[in-house]
Design a protein that fits this description.
The complex is a heterotrimer. Chain A is an alpha+beta fold. Chain A is about 25% helix and about 15% strand. By secondary structure, chain C is mainly α. The termini of chain C are far apart. Classes of the chains: A alpha+beta, B mainly alpha, C mainly alpha. The interface between A and B is large, with 51 and 78 residues.
Chain lengths: ~190, ~525, ~45
């Protein structure tokens, strides 16, 4: 047989080395390309929402710049008049919107914290927001679980749906922790 | 050197003025009101008097913007605040450049506009390269990245005056990005890849520009990227930064494979020339591309009659003049003579030495020459066969001057040269077309007619290593391997190298199971 | 083997690796709701 690196033995040696050397894995057997955050079955073009070579997800809709009539660009005229963002002033609908539209962003955490304040809880397994139906105490309540009627927020249909549910407390997320600083309306700096 | 006295102060004053004017509500639509007033100030300060002064003005502005960013980046502050500070000045500077370009000369004069753009891009690139060299590992990509991308977006706005110069704008940016390619500015490489993979850039280069006029420029940029990665990938040296750049490259290639497969098809040869032989998955990505209007028959279809497919009569488009890459001219002439008349007889015996360039390990063979020779001889063979009213097949490809060359190379080259030669053949196994079919037959013919098991082993090695990496796999690779293992005439399973180690046996069984 | 220039390139690449571009570097400034990326729990929707 060919005994150098250019035959079957050479291939075998490389495969064996790649099993223990993580630096080699990217070359052999290569990377599972379906895990790179691109929807390869999409009927739409991928480039138009391509965020970055280092991003695991496409652009969020709000991040895609588009040339709009300059009349629409009103921020410069009204920014000093805009109220600062205070989530406790906003309705649930907007909070859910902020939560679902700002994945990986501090705003998602902030919205989650405000929803928590309003007695919504995030179910870690079901991956859904849930709250007790008002005026309806749980039928069964123990130290570890309860059973009753709850409102689930259905993000697909964008509405609250009442359901009977067996709720285990350890599946609920604790109060979200916000990083120490939360920046909105950063003031523009002069040169 | 030798900036006129006072120019630095004037430039700083003007830049501050402009930044304030840009951010003022009174700037007007697209800053046009502010711009009219500002141009007057530039005239008053004498900045627009000569080409030299304009050049120095832009250079100083660029340096001031960059210095501001370095100061901001050194502050102990959140990335969001730092960026706000930097972009406050950078975006204003970019708007000034865009307005000066748009309004340079009269509206019909595109030459002055593009000349100014090229000047500014050259200045920014020059400042970058100098900064990169001087600061070394302290170099920051941010200011340059921001200037280039925002300027590109501004100059691709849907405005009539910009649409009329759009192709020249694209050319100017591509030239600049080529100058700043990773091999020249490795500290800028990550930002560089962000720039060339930006959705607006890809859209303009590959989708919107008519008649695919942007394709060859974009292919050049991708080649620049592959050439940079090549030494590290060849050495399987994938530390974290290199892995990240490699993974980013794969993401971009996936987008291109999904959205612009014809682009990858057209330039596959140029890309395979610069991708190292051990970069199998990346190469497979490119070779797996096929035209969107084509429906590929399932390679696992029982009794698939590949030679009955109508597509195999069609040659693929190859945008590289590979014949020109067969150098020196004398060698090409000898080869053409041999292909026509099988003379001079010494051509075959001298062929190996013509492909060797040094005795340096890892650099002994002229890989681009091998690739060019294989494709050239193969395409000449296809033309010859067609001229006789025939189609390539295991019988028609045999006993020809073309096959003499291929068989001679298979026998005469050492293991390294043979591996590179077989790789060159396997690089043509793509979607159904005349090249895929011819080279598939050639590889199988070389296997069947091999006078040593080493040749068969190496053919198997070249095919197998392309199959065991994660998907995608080119259609032509699959049908060739399936034929090799299914057709009893090749006696594939009788060979010792198939059973040389448990992992190899398992690999073959696993691949065969998925094939059959 | 890697040449001297390749080793230089690797060093510069590593330096660039420590301050990678941010997606907002290629976007218009959002004064009101800028991006503020931070790690969020994996059970939150990420996209």
């Amino acid at each position: 047989m060919v005994t150098d690196q250019f035959g079957m033995v050479g291939l075998l040696t490389f495969i064996r080395a790649a099993e223990t050397d993580p630096n080699l894995v990217a070359l052999a057997p290569g990377i599972d390309l379906t895990t790179l955050g691109l929807n390869l079955n999409s009927p739409e073009n991928l480039y138009s929402t391509f965020q970055s070579p280092w991003a695991d997800a496409p652009c969020r809709p709000q991040d895609i710049d588009f040339h709009v009539p300059s009349e629409y660009l009103t921020n410069i005229f009204i920014r000093d008049k805009l109220a600062p963002i205070k989530l406790n002033r906003y309705g649930e609908d907007l909070l859910f919107f902020l939560f679902y539209m700002n994945g990986g962003d501090m705003l998602q955490l902030a919205a989650a914290a405000e929803l928590y304040n309003r007695d919504w809880r995030y179910h870690k397994e079901e991956r859904v927001w849930i709250t007790r139906a008002p005026g309806m105490e749980p039928a069964i309540k123990t130290n570890t679980y309860e059973r009753g009627t709850y409102y689930f927020f259905d993000a697909q249909n964008w509405r609250k749906v009442a359901k009977e549910f067996h709720l285990e407390y350890d599946k609920l997320e604790e109060r979200p922790h916000l990083p120490p600083t939360l920046h909105h309306n950063p003031s523009p700096a002069a040169m | 050197f030798d900036d006129p006295p006072g120019l630095h102060e004037k430039t700083e004053f003007l830049l501050r003025e402009w930044v304030n004017m840009y951010h003022s509500p009174a700037a007007g639509r697209d800053s046009t009101k502010a711009f009219s007033a500002f141009v007057q100030q530039m005239h008053q300060q004498g900045i627009l008097k000569t080409d030299d002064l304009i050049t120095r003005f832009f250079r100083l502005c660029t340096e001031m913007c960059v210095d501001l960013c370095y100061r901001a980046l050194s502050e102990q502050s959140s990335p969001t605040l730092i960026r706000a500070k930097c972009f406050h000045t950078l975006d204003a500077f970019v708007r000034l450049i865009a307005l000066l370009v748009k309004h340079s000369g009269d509206s019909a004069n595109t030459v002055t506009k593009i000349n100014l753009l090229n000047k500014v891009l050259g200045i920014v690139a020059g400042v970058l390269l100098q900064d990169h060299e001087v600061r070394g590992t302290d170099f920051q990509q941010l200011p340059y990245h921001r200037i280039f991308i925002m300027l590109f977006i501004e100059l691709n706005a849907p405005e009539h005056v910009l649409e009329s110069i759009n192709f020249q704008v694209l050319t100017a940016f591509c030239n600049t990005f080529h100058i700043l390619r990773p091999a020249k500015a490795p500290g800028f490489a990550f930002a560089w890849l962000e720039l060339i993979s930006h959705r607006v850039f890809i859209g303009r280069m590959l989708a919107i520009t008519p008649q695919q006029r942007g394709w060859s420029m974009y292919a050049q940029l991708l080649s620049d990227l592959f050439k940079f990665l090549a030494p590290f990938l060849r050495n399987a040296n994938l530390d974290k930064p290199t892995q990240l750049l490699y993974k980013g490259t794969l993401r971009v290639l996936l987008v291109l494979l999904h959205d612009f497969p014809e682009f990858l098809c057209d330039f596959h040869y140029a890309f395979c020339d610069v991708i190292p032989p051990n970069c199998i998955q990346m190469r497979n990505l490119i070779l797996s591309a096929f035209p969107r209007n084509m429906r590929l028959p399932d390679p696992f279809t029982p009794n698939l009659k590949v030679d009955m497919l109508p597509e195999i009569a069609m040659p693929p488009r190859i945008m590289t003049n590979f014949a020109k890459m067969i150098q020196p001219k004398g060698f090409k002439n000898d080869m053409d003579s041999y292909l026509t008349s099988r003379s001079p007889v010494t051509f075959l015996s001298e062929l190996r030495s013509s492909l060797q360039i040094s005795s340096e390990p890892g650099n002994r063979y002229n890989i681009p020459l091998i690739n060019a020779l294989v494709l050239y001889v193969g395409t000449q063979a296809i033309t010859f066969i067609h001229s006789k009213g025939l189609q390539p097949s295991m019988s028609t490809i045999a006993h020809s001057s073309h096959m003499d060359i291929f068989q001679n190379l298979a026998v005469d080259l050492d293991t390294e040269g043979r591996y590179l030669f077989l790789n060159a053949i396997a690089n043509q196994l793509r979607y159904p077309n005349s090249h895929t079919h011819y080279f598939s037959c050639t590889l199988l013919y070389l296997f069947a007619e091999a006078n040593s098991e080493a040749i068969q082993e190496q053919i198997t090695r070249v095919l197998l290593e392309r199959l065991i990496v994660n998907r995608p796999h080119p259609w032509g690779l699959l049908i060739t391997f399936i034929e090799l293992i299914k057709n009893p005439s090749f006696k594939f399973w009788n060979h010792d190298f198939v059973h040389c180690a448990p992992e190899i046996e398992k690999l073959f069984e696993s691949v065969a199971r998925s094939c059959m | 083997p890697l040449q001297k220039e390749h080793l230089y390139q690797l060093a510069m690449l590593e330096a660039g690796f420590h301050h990678l571009p941010h997606p907002s570097d290629s976007e218009r400034q959002r004064h009101y709701l800028p991006r503020n990326p931070c790690p969020t729990p994996t059970h939150y929707p990420q996209t």
